[in-house]
Structures are given as C-alpha cells and as structure tokens.
C-alpha cells in the first residue's frame, strides 16, 4: 500500500471520464489499497481513482470513521426534493471552499473486489461525498456546480495560485 500524491486542478486526468473496471486483477487490488490508505487521513472525506492519476471507476470514502470503497459506482437514487447547500471543498482544489448545492441523500451501487454487489447510501456529508466522488469519475469537479459568482471567484483564486 502507498499514500499517493493527489492530482490538482489543471491535470487533464481530472477532466477525463474514467473507464469501467472490467477485470479485478493485481493492479485493481493495489489501486483499492492505495485509495484506502490515501483517504485515511484527517480531513479527507473521499477520494476518486483519477485524483491519484488512475482513470478507472473506483473511489474510497472516510466519513465519521467509516472507511470503504466501491468499484464501478453508479449514482442510482437521490432525494429529489431535499437539498443541502453547504461549503464543499476538494483535495484536487486545495484550500478553496464554496457553497455547493447537492441532494440531501444519495445512493450508489457498485461492486467490491470479490465481484459482490455493494450499496452505499447516506445523508448530509455521506450523501455529498457520494455525489462528489461520482462526479470525479465522470470528469467533473465541484467547481462545475458553483453558481456563477462563486465560480468566478474560484477560478480567479486558481489562476492566482490558490
């Protein structure tokens, strides 16, 4: 296992949709170990594979001491009528936090290393994390969801070197 370097905004891997995992091999098992070790640090809620430079559909989470992972996650349910608009940040956009509208609840389905079905769901921070990480795997950053004014501020801060 290895603590991996986090790719930051401007790296093209963050803007490229990730490929599905079709075979669980040593490379994928090693990826999961690295995702779990890298997310297991104070202040980290989630980590998508492309944030460590691997363009495969996998992410890990670390919410309230619950650490896990999912392969080939699909966002399958959200609370269509309940939202949250709290500050959101991202390891790939260090130091910037902006109000980001997300669904209050989210449910993700995928698989584990053994090919067994995995369901991960949650409200508030876990719901936000699931949506945020699925966005990463689709090549999106939370910056894409900001209102016009905050997006303009964020892009200026990024251009100025954060």
Automatic annotation (TrEMBL):
Enumerate the Pfam families for this protein. Answer: Pep_deformylase
What processes in GO biological process is this protein linked to? translation
The record's section on InterPro entries has:
Peptide_deformylase, Peptide_deformylase_sf
Q: How is the cofactor bound?
A: Binds 1 Fe(2+) ion.
Q: List the active site.
A: 133
**Name of the protein:** Peptide deformylase
| Function of the molecule | Removes the formyl group from the N-terminal Met of newly synthesized proteins. Requires at least a dipeptide for an efficient rate of reaction. N-terminal L-methionine is a prerequisite for activity but the enzyme has broad specificity at other positions.
Fetch the PANTHER family from UniProt: PEPTIDE DEFORMYLASE (PTHR10458), PEPTIDE DEFORMYLASE, MITOCHONDRIAL (PTHR10458:SF2)
Q: Which gene encodes it?
A: def
Q: Which UniProt keywords apply?
A: Hydrolase, Iron, Metal-binding, Protein biosynthesis
Q: Which GO terms describe its molecular function?
A: metal ion binding; peptide deformylase activity
List the cofactors: Fe(2+)
Q: Which family does it belong to?
A: Belongs to the polypeptide deformylase family.
- Signal sequence, renumbered to the chain: none
Give residues annotated as binding Fe cation: 90, 132, 136
**What EC number(s) does its UniProt record assign?**
3.5.1.88
Reactions the enzyme catalyzes:
N-terminal N-formyl-L-methionyl-[peptide] + H2O = N-terminal L-methionyl-[peptide] + formate
């Amino acid at each position: 296992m290895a603590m991996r370097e986090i790719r930051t905004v401007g790296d093209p891997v963050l803007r490229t949709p990730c490929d599905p995992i079709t075979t669980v091999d040593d490379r994928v098992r090693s990826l999961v170990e690295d995702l779990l070790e890298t997310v297991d640090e104070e202040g980290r809620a989630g980590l998508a594979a492309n944030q460590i430079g691997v363009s495969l559909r996998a992410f890990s989470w670390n919410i309230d001491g619950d650490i896990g992972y999912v392969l080939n996650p699909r966002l399958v349910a959200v609370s269509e009528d309940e939202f949250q608009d709290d500050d959101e940040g991202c390891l790939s956009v260090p130091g910037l936090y902006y109000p980001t509208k997300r669904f209050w609840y989210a449910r993700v389905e995928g698989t584990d290393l053994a090919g067994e079905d995995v369901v991960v769901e949650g409200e508030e921070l876990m719901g936000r994390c699931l949506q945020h990480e699925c966005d990463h795997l689709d090549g999106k950053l939370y910056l894409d969801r900001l209102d016009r004014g905050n997006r303009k501020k964020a892009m200026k801060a990024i251009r100025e070197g954060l």
